[in-house]
Write a structure and sequence with these properties.
Elements: H1 3-12, H2 19-30, H3 37-47, H4 53-65, E1 70-72, E2 80-82, E3 89-93, E4 99-102, H5 105-108, E5 126-129, H6 132-144, H7 159-164
Helix pairs in contact: 2-3, 2-4, 3-4
The chain binds zinc ion (2 copies).
The site of one zinc ion (ZN) has 7 residues, from helix 6.
Length: 168
Amino acid sequence: MQVDNFINTLREKGLNVTYQRILIYNYLQTTKNHPTAEEIYQVVKAEYPSISIATVYKTLETLAEHDLIKKVNPMHDLARFDGDTTPHHHLICSECRKIVDIHDERLDALPVPSNNGFQVNGYRVLFEGICQECLGQITLKADVDSDTVPVTFCGKPGSEASADEDPS
Ligand SMILES: [Zn+2]
Ligand SMILES: [Zn+2]
């Protein structure tokens, strides 16, 4: 949404048009990083030094409440904010917490659970993994220290270990 439209939308929703709201909304339109409130504060503070972190939090909550931005809560971590309100999904790196957008129509058409008394209003798929940069660092570390055994998350126990723990 362009800033002109954003201002009109604020008016339509009966919200005050403030410089802080425009500044924060504008920044979220220019970044794909899904920043935290703290990161947003650091950026907007440069342009508007008297803004407080409390105002940033409050503004983000208000904009999210009115669906002008989206709140992403990845892996019980700090809330992250998304200027893109179109249906899309996310990949998150469990190492550096980078969030990447996934646009895939197949994910928009997952079967919605029914018969549980819930009215489902929407969903977002969050894939967890390790990004290319972090994968590169892990490989690099393994190269330096040749004694390091590569970490496997779903490896089966070795034959020796299973023989020791044989319950019979
Ligand atoms: Zn990463
Ligand atoms: Zn996103």
